[in-house]
Design goal:
The complex is a heterodimer of chains A (311) and B (279). Chain A has 11 helices and 14 strands. Chain A is α/β, with parallel strands linked by helices and 311 residues long. Chain A has 2 domains: 213 residues, P-loop containing nucleotide triphosphate hydrolases (Rossmann fold, 3-Layer(aba) Sandwich); 84 residues, Alpha-Beta Plaits. In chain A, helix 3 crosses helix 4, helix 3 packs parallel to helix 5 and helix 4 packs across helix 5. Chain B has one domain. The longest helix of chain B is centred in the N-terminal third of the chain and has 26 residues. At the A-B interface, helix 2, strand 6, helix 3, helix 4 and helix 5 of A face helix 1, helix 4 and helix 5 of B.
Chain lengths: 311, 279
């Protein structure tokens, strides 16, 4: 899936600003804070909103010219509560299958299968309107899967779910993406969800792509990120670290995460020093006590924080 | 090892080409209505006038002394007019929730994420109401025409009034189009079917009341175009080759009807979207 200079405007608000991105096959996370433009991006790809500018292709097909072909090959799980009123689960899912072009008999068979798969087999004859929030999330996934899409758009699929239900939903998504060969785009503001289920990530912020690529690659090699707590003039020391080419992000009250990029620990003689030694050296030079220094395994949170430039 | 794998499996069967989803929507909507006992009761009630008329035609055809009640071309116009009440009730009962309920349940984004265009969705929804309106107007009226031939044992009446076939068809279709699109447009404006029903009834009665007041003030029926019902009556009278009952020229009434349908389509075009944009 490719986006090339896509701009979406709602009235005076530019929801997407010249977005250029590439979504590889497999499971891709669409990450960003609320209002970053994730849902708008999905809706533009579905053809719900027309971009003011730019070009989009999904599964090799141009969104502007072949929307029906695209929609017959994708499944969409919307963020908000959505169902067809007055139907039980199996009728609803079979109906969605028929809307997607499945013959009535096949749609009914698939409805039973996907309801079993998402864990709603016992409740399939209940009216969808009587479902709990977690069950409604599952039924939305079922209707997105019934016609066997090649690509799934999942918009905040774990919203409102209890911890057990959330784990089960993530397990389903992971299974779809990794064992069932279904390409999926998971839009979420929950980093652990994306990190658990996806291989690649596109980070969005304020309608723009802030970072994109394989998660492991974006996280960088282990051991170059440190948790650091000091005693002394903190703002001045942060300035020192930044002057030395390092990046500092707060994690909680007094611990900061320090990224040590390549070259930051290179001495004037051109030799690379131990990262920890460099940090200790800088602290000693500026009269700051190091109370806590520990290598940290880079997480998606670091990628996210780095991409969004949080201080 | 499981005997039968019940986890997610890829689908290997065929899929219909896009463009047929409206039939799925229409069929599901019609079946959903027919399952309701109240609605079946309403349908039976709507066919009672047909039974009475059938008896009338039977007696008129078989007993010469009852020639006074023998059907004329105008009888078939009257039958359509008698069905107006049932058309009104059916339009409200079937039509009010057609889009409003989907909007309440956020179903539009489910529909429009499938391979169907907005026009297909509207067409499918319209087909539900359209079919039921024709079922209580066109079908009984045409059946009565056949019964007349059957009971009389001759084609004399039919050959003399051959225009009745197209007249009944055009009049019923025009009424169904007007009611369907007006109701669908109103249904797309709200998330509450009850509110839509009140709005529809309100518009019909209010327009009739305004015309009634103008009639009382001016003493002329020239302003009948103000009443939605009067416009339809005027045009249908002309279709049945009867003397129009209002002073408004029938093309004016026709323009009002077509304008209303165009306005409704325009509203539907704006309101039926996968995403509601609030600016």
């Amino acid at each position: 899936m490719h986006l090339d200079g896509v701009t979406v405007i709602y009235g005076a608000n530019r929801a997407l600003k010249d977005v250029t991105a590439r979504f590889n096959a497999g499971a891709v996370g669409l990450l960003g804070p609320n209002g970053a433009g994730k849902s708008t991006l999905l809706k533009a790809l579905l053809g719900f909103v027309k971009p003011a500018d730019g070009r989009m292709t999904v599964l090799g097909l141009d969104v502007a010219h072949r929307p029906l072909e695209i929609r017959s090959r994708i499944g969409y799980m919307p963020e908000s509560d959505a169902h067809i009123p007055g139907m039980n689960a199996v009728s609803f899912v079979a109906y969605c299958g028929q809307l997607a072009g499945l013959p009535a008999v096949d749609a009914m068979q698939r409805a039973h299968e996907v309801l079993y798969y998402v864990g709603l087999d016992e409740a399939r004859y209940r009216n969808v309107e009587t479902y709990s929030t977690g069950m409604k999330q599952r039924i939305k996934l079922a209707q997105a899967l019934v016609h066997d899409p090649d690509l799934l758009f999942l918009d905040e699929p774990t919203n409102g779910m209890d911890p057990k239900g959330r784990d089960e939903m993530l397990e389903l998504i992971r299974d779809l993406g990794h064992n069932k060969n279904v390409n999926l785009i998971l839009s979420s503001h929950l980093l652990p969800d994306v990190e658990y289920t996806c291989d690649d990530v596109v980070v969005m912020d304020k309608g723009q792509v802030a970072a994109q690529g394989p998660i492991e690659q974006l996280k960088g090699p282990a051991g170059r990120v440190f948790e650091l707590r000091i005693k002394g003039d903190l703002p001045a020391f942060i300035d020192v670290l930044r002057a030395a080419g390092m990046e500092c992000n707060w994690t909680d009250e007094d611990v900061m995460r320090v990224f040590v990029p390549d070259g930051a620990s290179r001495g004037t003689n051109g030799q690379t020093a131990n990262d920890q030694a460099v940090l200790f050296g800088l602290a000693a030079q500026h009269g700051v006590q190091v109370r806590h220094l520990r290598p940290s395994i880079p997480t998606l949170e670091d990628v996210f924080a780095k991409a969004l430039g949080e201080k | 090892m499981p005997i039968h794998d019940q986890s997610y499996r890829r689908y290997r069967g065929g899929k219909a080409m896009p463009g047929q989803a409206w039939t799925v929507i229409a069929r599901a909507g019609i079946m959903n209505m027919i399952r309701k006992r109240v609605f079946l009761g309403l349908l039976l009630m709507a066919w009672l006038p047909f039974l009475i008329r059938a008896v009338q035609i039977y007696f008129a055809a078989n007993y010469p002394q009852l020639a006074l009640i023998a059907p004329t071309a105008e009888t078939f116009r009257q039958i359509l007019e008698q069905q107006d009440f049932f058309v009104f009730v059916m339009t409200i009962y079937v039509g009010a929730g057609l889009i409003a309920n989907d909007r309440r349940a956020n179903a539009l984004q489910i529909y429009l994420s499938k391979p169907l265009m907005r026009t297909e969705y509207i067409f499918g929804k319209a087909a539900i109401l359209f079919a039921f309106i024709l079922f209580v107007t066109l079908v009984p009226d045409i059946l009565l025409l056949f019964l007349q031939v059957l009971f009389a044992g001759s084609f004399a009446f039919l050959s003399k009034n051959l225009f009745l076939f197209p007249a009944i068809t055009v009049a019923a279709v025009l009424q169904a189009i007007l009611c369907t699109f007006t109701m669908l447009a109103l249904s797309s404006l709200s998330k509450s079917a009850r509110y839509v029903a009140i709005l529809y009834a309100g518009i019909l009665f209010f327009s009739a009341a305004i015309y009634g007041a103008m009639l009382a003030i001016t003493g002329s029926t020239r302003l009948s175009w103000l009443s939605l019902g009067a416009n339809l009556t005027q045009v249908v009278d002309v279709i049945f080759r009867l003397k129009p009952r209002y002073a408004t020229p029938w093309p004016v009434s026709m323009i009002v009807i077509l304008g209303l349908v165009a306005l409704s389509i325009s509203i539907l075009e704006r309101r039926v979207r996968g995403v509601e944009v609030v600016t």
